[in-house]
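Weekly sync, protein design subgroup
Attendees: M.S., D.O., the rotation student, P.L. (late)

Item 1: inverse folding check
M.S. brought a backbone from last month's batch and wanted to see whether the design step gives back something sensible before we order anything. D.O. pointed out we never logged the input encoding, so this time it goes straight into the notes. Structure tokens as presented (587 positions):
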């Protein structure tokens, strides 16, 4: 059956327009370059960068106690469950790259959620035989995949940890019991989801009680305690991830999914008990004398970012103005071509043959770049014809909004991890102090395309949905880390990460200048980010793009980039001015 599906997907049809399908953005509006005066933070030895100051502080303290980059990343990810619940947490999953400084070994860890064993291609199909609209299927239990974050963190800690597992969790337990201050971003997120068709926070009693105490929405400056999460984390600290995936917590999680007031789901205790993270080989590409590495499928982020860079390789971007017509146009064209291949080929490699090696081959990327011109827009773009490998065939095992974290420790170990519960506040189901994801909506809701051919990213039992998360690490010729980064932002993540890589590697910007620069995204139209509501891109660039035939849209683009860059005397850390992150040095 897997082979038949692979053959059915072998000859992709042209994709027009190309780019991420616009999806309602329920994350808060970006602050954009209102914080454009940010300067990179310097550390001589170690650094933590995350989307919340409290989480960064916790990670830095773990490093000061002698913890590794893996220890600090785990502590930060667990802390974000509490202080940034709208974006990530133990009810979701993650993709992670780990670079071992002493051995110069790079490893990818896949903690992506999986579909229930009882799920099939019809999971989101309505009575009319078509995929139900995205806003209808986000809230409730049907969209919840088996969470992967804790299993991933535990597996990484077993290999790379220096401190005791419980020591990584203790700071968040204390903070949950003592309480923390609700930030403007969290409060704005609550206010914004109220105005969406999903409105995930007021449907379920437990969720409503936490985010609307006394019937009033949480506001910036409120003091918020989460004793239920503290109890959950005490169990995990004592019993490891098994305490989450089996026993009372797992029972409560499954009950919440089955008893959801809308879209009851199919998750079973066996789905949780059998979940395991997957250790994978990173995907890498040589670009301008650098080795750029990302995470392989089932996320499309790493492969698609590298495809964009490979198509740009023949062009002298360094000789073009960073925000000029030529460089911007070429980035748009490379993204359109890479996105066509993404849509046709990328999915969970256990279920369909994914031609990653062929997509990133030098001759193929050169052929994609040869389609591009500095002074003309491609009228149509299509996926290339690529040979498909056989799917690995790893199906169900038997028995057993997104945020970015970057960490470097004193031994030179580096972690770049993108973690998510997908939409803001995920499915809206709140269990034992944490929110559950809605990651299954990252599957194609229609199992076949307009021609009746099976879609590579269709739902299947125990399958991992395609993602756009793109944690990235750049190595020099000696195998040392030069740059590590990633971002939230849904399908636009790929464009955010590719832009920063080009800004640093081609145009020579420092990492904070690159992160702060106005964003670019391709969603059929070319989206150019404003600066606090005012145009940020040169008028001649906008006019030039339109003259080439591009449709240009302006607005906010809600990245959440976090990055570190190696310099002669240590490291520079960069946070995204669009969010509330902080880079904390450890010297």
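Designed sequence read out in the meeting:
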């Amino acid at each position: 059956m897997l082979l038949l599906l692979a053959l059915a997907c072998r000859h992709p049809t042209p994709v027009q327009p190309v780019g991420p399908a616009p999806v309602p953005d329920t994350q808060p509006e970006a602050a954009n370059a209102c914080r454009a005066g940010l300067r990179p933070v310097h550390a001589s030895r170690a650094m933590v960068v995350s989307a919340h100051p409290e989480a960064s502080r916790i990670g830095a303290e773990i490093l000061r106690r002698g913890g590794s980059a893996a220890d600090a990343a785990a502590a930060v990810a667990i802390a974000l469950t509490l202080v940034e619940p709208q974006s990530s947490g133990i009810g979701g999953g993650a993709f992670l790259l780990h670079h071992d400084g002493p051995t110069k070994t790079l490893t990818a860890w896949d903690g992506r959620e999986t579909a229930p064993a009882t799920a099939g291609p019809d999971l989101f199909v309505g009575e009319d035989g078509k995929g139900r609209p995205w806003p209808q299927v986000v809230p409730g239990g049907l969209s919840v995949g088996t969470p992967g974050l804790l299993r991933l963190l535990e597996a990484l800690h077993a290999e790379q940890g220096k401190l005791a597992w419980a020591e990584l969790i203790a700071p968040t337990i204390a903070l949950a019991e003592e309480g923390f201050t609700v930030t403007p971003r969290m409060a704005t997120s609550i206010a914004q989801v109220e105005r969406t068709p999903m409105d995930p926070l007021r449907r379920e009693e437990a969720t409503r009680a936490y985010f609307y105490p006394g019937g009033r929405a949480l506001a910036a400056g409120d003091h918020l305690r989460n004793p239920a999460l503290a109890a959950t984390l005490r169990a995990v600290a004592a019993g490891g991830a098994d305490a989450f995936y089996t026993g009372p917590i797992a029972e409560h999680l499954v009950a919440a999914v089955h008893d959801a007031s809308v879209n009851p789901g199919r998750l079973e205790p066996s789905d949780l008990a059998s979940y395991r993270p997957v250790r994978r080989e990173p995907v890498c590409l040589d670009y301008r004398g650098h080795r750029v590495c990302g995470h392989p499928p089932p996320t499309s982020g790493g492969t698609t970012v590298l495809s964009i860079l490979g198509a740009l390789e023949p062009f002298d971007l360094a000789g073009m103005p960073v925000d000029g017509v030529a460089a911007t146009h070429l980035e748009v064209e490379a993204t359109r071509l890479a996105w066509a291949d993404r849509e046709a080929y990328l999915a969970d490699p256990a279920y369909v043959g994914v031609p990653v090696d062929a997509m990133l081959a030098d001759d193929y990327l050169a052929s994609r770049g040869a389609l591009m011109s500095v002074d003309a827009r491609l009228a149509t773009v299509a996926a290339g014809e690529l040979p498909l490998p056989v799917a690995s065939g790893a199906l169900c095992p038997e028995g057993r909004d997104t945020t970015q974290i970057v960490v470097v420790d004193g031994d030179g170990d580096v972690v770049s991890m993108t973690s998510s519960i997908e939409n803001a506040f995920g499915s809206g189901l709140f269990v034992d102090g944490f929110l559950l994801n809605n990651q299954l909506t990252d599957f194609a809701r229609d199992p076949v395309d307009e021609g009746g051919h099976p879609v590579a990213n269709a739902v299947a039992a125990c399958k991992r949905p395609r993602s756009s998360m793109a944690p990235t690490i750049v190595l020099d010729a000696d195998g040392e880390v030069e740059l590590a980064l990633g971002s939230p932002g849904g399908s636009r993540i790929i464009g955010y990460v590719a832009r920063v890589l080009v800004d640093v590697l081609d145009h020579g910007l420092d990492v904070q200048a690159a992160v702060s620069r106005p964003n670019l995204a391709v969603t059929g139209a070319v989206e150019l980010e404003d600066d606090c509501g005012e145009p940020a891109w040169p008028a001649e660039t906008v006019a030039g793009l339109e003259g080439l035939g591009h449709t240009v849209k302006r607005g906010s683009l809600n990245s959440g980039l976090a990055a570190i860059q190696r310099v002669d005397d240590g490291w520079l850390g960069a946070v995204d001015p669009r969010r509330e992150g902080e880079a904390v040095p450890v010297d």
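Discussion: Residues 353 and 390 are 5 Å apart (CA to CA). The chain is about 30% helix and 15% strand.
Action: P.L. to compare against the previous round before Friday.
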